[in-house]
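Entry 12.
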Amino acid sequence: MMYKAILFDVGDTLIRYTPASAELYQARLHEIGITITDKDARRMEQTVELCTAEQIYREIHGAPRMDDAEFQQMMDTAVLSDSAVCCVTEEQKKRFSDTWSLMRQEKVVAEGVFPLLEQLKKSYRLGIISNYRASLAEYLEEVGLRPYFETIIISEIVGYEKPDVRIFNAALQEMDLQPEECLYVGDHPFDVLGAKDAGMDAAWLKTHIESMPEYIKQKPDYVLTDLNALPEILHGT
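Predicted 3D structure (tokens):
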């Protein structure tokens, strides 16, 4: 299949967050006297990611929506329930909750993204579909990514979030394309779920989640461990 357009997720695909969430979980636990290994921290990061995704999936299918405090508590519970953490006191739990101020990250453009986009733009129309605040457009302009993309669809602006197919359809309508003419690239299981439900092919950037949750039946058409391997995949289509 020769695609006409390549559409991208942003967070953990085109941009990275530093420090990584795994490092922040280590730092937060250190604040309450608990030391964990880097491997433990990466496992926690994946657990939290999948835990939050499952809750969002439940909400999409009718479960009551959690408020921010409940969502934060759910993530903390996932961390403190990890096998690397034991015998946590009530006082430690309270102190751990207070360490959320440490969860501050900077956004940086992922390595190799600019040359990759330069290469892709010669053969494909490019777009973005992202679950993000409206300020994303300003950020993309600031870091020099905005000129590469014909279409930028942001959840806070359109009112739909991935994996809702309507956010994918918004991009298709704006670009006047059919789903089968597009490849969607993202790191989250919801990227695969939403893109496939919308009729697009999906390339899953498998960097921090080991496998698809069982409740997601759709499978990616391609699996990447490095975004810069995308041209090789496209060359073979």
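Annotation: The radius of gyration is 19 Å. The first strand starts at residue 5 and ends at 8.
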